[in-house]
Amino acid sequence: MQSVINRLRPLILGGLLLALAPAAQPKNVKPDPNGLPPQDVKDLHYGDVLFYFYQDDYFDSITRLLAARQLGRIPHTEGEAELLLGGLYLSLGEHVEAGRIFEELLNKNTSEAVRNKAWFYLGKVWYQRGYLEEAERALTQVSDKIDPRISAERYMLLAQLMMREQRYDDAIAALSKWHGAADWTAYAQFNLGVALVRKDRLADAMPYLDRVGRIETRSEELLSLKDKANLALGFALLQAQRAAEAKPILQRVRLEGPYSSKALLGVGWADAGMGEFKRALVPWLTLRKRSLLDSAVQESFLTVPYAFNQLSATGQAAEYYSSAIDSFDAELKRIDDSIEKIRNGDLLDRLLNDDKKDTLTWYWQLSTLPDAPESRYLYALLASNEFQEGLKNYRELNYMSRNLDNWRDNVAAYDDMLDTRQEAYKRRVPKADAVMAATDLDGLTRQRVDFESRINAIEKSSDVAALGTPEEQQMWMRLKRIEDYLVTHPDDPDLAEMREKHRLMKGVMYWRLSGSFKARLWNERRSVKELEAELKETQKRAVLVKQARAGMPTNTGAYAGRVAAVRDRMDQLQQRLADVSAQQNRFLQALAIRELEGQKLRISTYQIQARYELAAIYDRASSDKPKAPQP
Amino acid sequence: MNSKHRVVSIILRAALLACAWTAAAAQTGPADAAAAPAAPPAATDAAPAAAAPDDFKTLDQEVQGLKKDVIDLNKDLFVLEEELLFPANTQVALYVSMDVGTFFALDSVTIRIDNKEVKNYLYTAREADALLKGGVQQIYLGNLKVGKHELVAFFTGKGPVERAYKRGATIVFDKGVGAKYLELKITDRLAKHQPEFTIKDWE
């Protein structure tokens, strides 16, 4: 069974991924020979969600997706993200939420392919969880324009759903119209045959079951189905008192297969039905050596002495009945012990002991049982959806409880962090206040305005000397002073040479200053602009500092409030998780005990029958004894 | 009850068992064949109804609601953690993406910011595969002051024809008051049959 479950996993996973792939992001397709242009990521945070999704880490993926959606970080991939969210909820077993999202989304402009796959997987999960009405509604939404294998499985699920609801006529009608993939045909025919048998239409069922019972195949699954078909048909014929026809069909069941015990039982009954009790003993005695856990073997403990009795071997019959009673006694004792252990013990935790605990996936199934006495009775349970889905719920609750425990440490650290921030704030506030007090931003702004006005005035008056270097300005001032002196002595002939020199030097100086005036003016204007930008930045920072100063206690308080609120929610949820986990535990224990009680009841019935038969033999033996002579 | 009568009762029970079995064996197809019950033998009488299907549904619906609440809380914790530890005004997030990957198989990425190593990440096959399928990994989430910063990323792995390959990419970026996102992109340069490593600044 384990190998088939392992094989099942990639199939289902592949299916879900396929269902979501068109929505997820159809990038990174291998290039065709001509090459494909690289595709850009539309939203980084959506890519981040996919990174976890593609690693089957659905819990991290959904957390990031919900966070990104709340923070408005996936504006370009909103539609795809919503569909993926539905798929993720489904993967985590949240079929109600997934159904809500799909129903809302799939009524919009979603492609038919995506819509079909989403409805199909939703229907399948609902079917597995026993929500048959919802499953049927979802599965009937799927159109025929879908992958033939999915289409085949969809019809098969619908038919099985109808059979579970005992709507055999509906199932027969659905399966009669079957036109599916070739490898599914055998399953359709088998199911159709079963439905017909259930409607007492054996003659109609025979061709279908017979055809499946004769298929040539090497596939283990189809061989298994072939055995089932032969067994079903054989027992149906036995029930119809057609033992001679039943025998060759039952003999087609493989001796080494999982159904060989029931087939051996049936072959024996076919022989017995034809009055061939000696022949019947051959399969029944073979069967009697097998494990008593098998119901067919249990029945053989009665059929063997019955055959001996029919052959008038009363002694052997009595011996076998007596042995059966002892075996049934021992088995009942073992079952009682197991029930007691399950009732008092930690069955589920032991079942999940070897489980890889760090992932949540919807296709998870328990495939092996721990090596414990009660395990031998529980294999039938493993095959039931109810038990597996319940166990999956229990496992998921445990996972979520561990997840919250992990957060608990982080949340405790947030408290410390907020305290530290508060302390740091208290230390920094006086320093910040001192810096702010020493900074006259208004004065600086006024100075900048004055400076700009001066530049404007210089430009307007073309005061070239105003922008000269300090040396040039010094020189210009000296020339100015000389000029003033010369003005006051206009007629002094001794100053004629000096006047000429002054005129020449002033001309050179003016030439030099006016030559660089435009460049200097541009530089000054640039400085003014830079000053303006820096002042603006300083003003902005000053505002931020003021806001931070005023807002920090509020911020810290708001965070502290949020931390306290999530802590409360964590406590409440942990309590609910513990309660529901315990309920789930009790439910699964009850299922296990119901299974064992069922087995116990059956064995008890066999035991009563064995005792009765033994008593009857003794009765007959005593009545056959020659009567004592009358005195 | 005579012996023949009892035999008939056994046969009938066997037949009932077969019928119960056939119903249980109804298949959904190859995938579910394995999961089909290995014929839980029908008990002769009704088994104790300790756990009816309705119980399962009631409990299942309670579990559904509870799991949804835990998922929501987990999201709130995730958002709270990010806002608390990496406020938007200092937050810097680095992402790694890989397009096609024909010419490069990623082994590791080393990241230095302002000449200080902040991350050295080794990829598992599963992670590299997730990148190839279109996932984008948030490789680093940290805090930086407003202003200019230099980022250098080194990518190591297998290049064309399985050769060991190490390449770098660098960017000088401005960290403003909002969160800064940078994408380290590995793409295939088809014309040269070589991988290409670039850094995209998401404004």
Structural commentary:
The complex is a heterodimer of chains A (about 625) and B (about 200). Chain A has 23 helices and no strands. Among the domains of chain A are: about 1-25 and about 40-145, Tetratricopeptide repeat domain (Serine Threonine Protein Phosphatase 5, Tetratricopeptide repeat, Alpha Horseshoe), CATH 1.25.40; about 405-625. Helix content of chain A is about 75%, strand content about 0%. In chain A, α5 packs antiparallel against α6 (about 110-130), α6 (about 110-130) runs antiparallel to α7 and α10 packs antiparallel against α11. By secondary structure, chain B is an alpha+beta fold. Chain B folds into two domains: about 1-50, no CATH class; about 85-200, Immunoglobulin-like, CATH 2.60.40. In chain B, the strands form two sheets. Chain B has a four-stranded mixed sheet with strand order 4-1-7-8, with no helix packed on it. Chain B has a four-stranded antiparallel sheet with strand order 3-2-5-6, with no helix packed on it. In chain B, β7 and β8 form a beta hairpin. Chain B is flat and about 65 Å long. The N and C termini of chain B lie far apart (about 90 Å). Residues about 1-50 of chain B have low confidence and may be disordered. Chains A and B meet through α1, α2, α3, α5 and α8 of A and α1, α2, α3, β1 and α4 of B.
Shape of chain B: flat
CATH architecture of the largest domain in chain B: Sandwich
Shape call of chain A? elongated
Question: Given the helix and strand composition of chain A, which structural class is it?
Answer: mainly alpha
Give the helix tally of chain A. Answer: 23
Gyration radius of chain B (Cα, Å) is 31 Å
Distance between the termini of chain A: 71 Å
CATH hierarchy class name of the largest domain in chain B? Mainly Beta
State the separation between the terminal residues of chain B, measured CA to CA: 91 Å
Number of domains of chain B: 2
Q: What is the arithmetic mean of pLDDT of chain A?
A: 83
- Supply the number of helical segments of chain B: 4
Low-confidence stretches of chain A: 1-39
| Largest beta-sheet details of chain A | none
